[in-house]
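Quick question: what would this complex look like in 3D?
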Amino acid sequence: MKKLDKGAAAKEREGAKPARGPGFEAKRMEILRGAAILFAENGYHETSVNMLSEKLGVSKPVLYYYAENKDDILVQIGQISLDMLRAAMSRAQKAQLSGVGKLRHFFTAYTEIMCSDFGRCFAFVDQKVVSAEARAENSAGRRVIEAAIREIIVEGQSDHSIAQCSPEFASRALFGAFNAIPRWFKEGGEFDAREVAEVYIDLFVTGLGR
Amino acid sequence: MKKLDKGAAAKEREGAKPARGPGFEAKRMEILRGAAILFAENGYHETSVNMLSEKLGVSKPVLYYYAENKDDILVQIGQISLDMLRAAMSRAQKAQLSGVGKLRHFFTAYTEIMCSDFGRCFAFVDQKVVSAEARAENSAGRRVIEAAIREIIVEGQSDHSIAQCSPEFASRALFGAFNAIPRWFKEGGEFDAREVAEVYIDLFVTGLGR
Amino acid sequence: MKKLDKGAAAKEREGAKPARGPGFEAKRMEILRGAAILFAENGYHETSVNMLSEKLGVSKPVLYYYAENKDDILVQIGQISLDMLRAAMSRAQKAQLSGVGKLRHFFTAYTEIMCSDFGRCFAFVDQKVVSAEARAENSAGRRVIEAAIREIIVEGQSDHSIAQCSPEFASRALFGAFNAIPRWFKEGGEFDAREVAEVYIDLFVTGLGR
Amino acid sequence: MKKLDKGAAAKEREGAKPARGPGFEAKRMEILRGAAILFAENGYHETSVNMLSEKLGVSKPVLYYYAENKDDILVQIGQISLDMLRAAMSRAQKAQLSGVGKLRHFFTAYTEIMCSDFGRCFAFVDQKVVSAEARAENSAGRRVIEAAIREIIVEGQSDHSIAQCSPEFASRALFGAFNAIPRWFKEGGEFDAREVAEVYIDLFVTGLGR
DNA sequence: GATGAATGAGGCTTCATTCAT
DNA sequence: GATGAATGAAGCCTCATTCAT
């Protein structure tokens, strides 16, 4: 919230890092995952840095060794989530499938990601808390993916696997519906994420009519 | 010695009130509406009581004259929203329409409500901040409406206006999709809420397939 | 979400503490002593946390590092005072003295304690401000000491060093009289606490009659 | 605490009053008595003006009609208490009794007063909260009475009804002991205030020795 | 004479963050 | 590389008090 130069930090993470040992990345992931779980469960503001340090079993300064800020933690979680989503999109795009096939392919992966530790946090925690800069980066990432989905829909309309409809609206309805899944999904329940995704896709493809 | 029981306040609102003149209700609504707008725009935690009092043009104690708490403001906004939703559901249920017709009827109203000042706040702000008791009441309200939708779906399946599908999943997908509308909807844009609702319903009814 | 249970804090002080280095105890005592002086001088409610932090030369959060609450400060002061009183009583009970000798022994120490920084605060500040739980603990401590005094009186009546009289009333009169001493006693005045105690005891033993 | 001109108010109460109806004095007493009970029971700071108005069944502005201030309420209670004490002292001084007889006479009345509604408040509530001016007046009142007691003691020493001892210390011990009575005294218990006073006086006169 | 509504000022508490060791 | 201790800033809330009606 008092962004001095967050950009520097973010860039640093992918640039000339200051001599970080081999365990660094593993520990960083461990911390981020723990934080993601807590943020998703309790909410970002309801999870104090104190609580993080206690529940993660590390001292507060350690947290500041792995993240610039409290919200940098959230930013990093978002980056990881977006990376996963981008990879999923990439795989879908490369798949030898019809438009609707790619849609199904992507949203299955999307559901799995959004029900994972990182994804749940990404889905639940409002990005309003992070710096404008980081938020912009995040939004850009999302937008790229949404654009890709619209393109897939258009593609499906070309190959006649998807009906004529507004790609904008369809994309929004799809993301809206799928984003809400982690809100009620319980790991280890009757269905796993993959199955839920299948049902949802079928619903969207078939429609409720008749 | 401080907060004994939050619930007492909520109950008080419908119980033995400490003498309230006319005008109270109007001012209360004015304050709640202003707060709802700010909460929806900036986020609950990002909107301090100070900010509320400044932007609403009242002193801080006034807020505490109309609400027990900062989160009671949110609770009251939720109650108003739920009341509107319940009324909408009631109208839909009473309408002389097929299942799909009732669905369309309800979700049109739903969209309008969720795009209103109160509804946007209700849609955006996580109820994690409110007391367990109030949250339970809120959840119960939502669940009643969700159950009613599932019933309407079943009804539609009986009257053959809705295809065979899991009412649970369909209901969740519908709410997920519609809940996300206020996240991008802009008042005064190309479409009004009613029109967006139409498009969405068509999408859901027709399906993306073929 | 705010104050769940005050008692947890008190218990924590003797339980699983969050890692406290040496120096902690000394600083804690320093803060408590300063607070005790201010509370005794100005009154508990008249001494704001702001004032405490200013006069003690520490920032406000530091106070909350050493105490849960404003009233936990008072509670801790009470615990220290009670510990001193218990120790004094223990010494008096073990002394090889007649009943009246033990009485004299205890109330001399009592006076010294009640005229000390901690004792004055303990004597002056009404425990009405602290949580029911802490107040109960405090009262229990007092009652144990009062019971011990009654026992000493009975003992003195057995060994004929104390006249027949109601131990309950005698004990109450004694504590009442001695508790009031710090209200007028000035350190460095004509008499020191020990001497005042002597005079009081003589008065009580000899009586005003004849 | 923000004494503008409390003196004016106090004086006004005994001077040219602004046309107050006949019921004024009765209602004033009723309010003061109720406040005294609440202050004694809950403490001055723990009793908000809101609570006063609720429990006394009058609106807040009414309280400000009968008292300048919250602490003026306390001041008035103090004045009433002091008036009672002064009257009691006056009666004791005029009685045709030995020194010790006057002592007994006064402290019996003193106990009754201090166990009454007004007296309990006077005994329990620290005058630290009232304006310097009012506190001075109050202290002066107390001091006059204490001086009178010392004089009675001297008188008793002259008429050989009281033993040689320091009148200062004796007076302080007496007031200390008697002031504490309302702290444990319960109306309607085994003893009434008069009887408690008798026992205490006997204790003080006879002494604990032998 | 009474009250619903309003307020300035200040209270207590906690948060994210840093630094000396 | 780690931590106990510290802090500036800000948060929510409540109090005694007053006025327009």
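Answer marked as accepted. The two ends of chain C are 65 Å apart (CA to CA).
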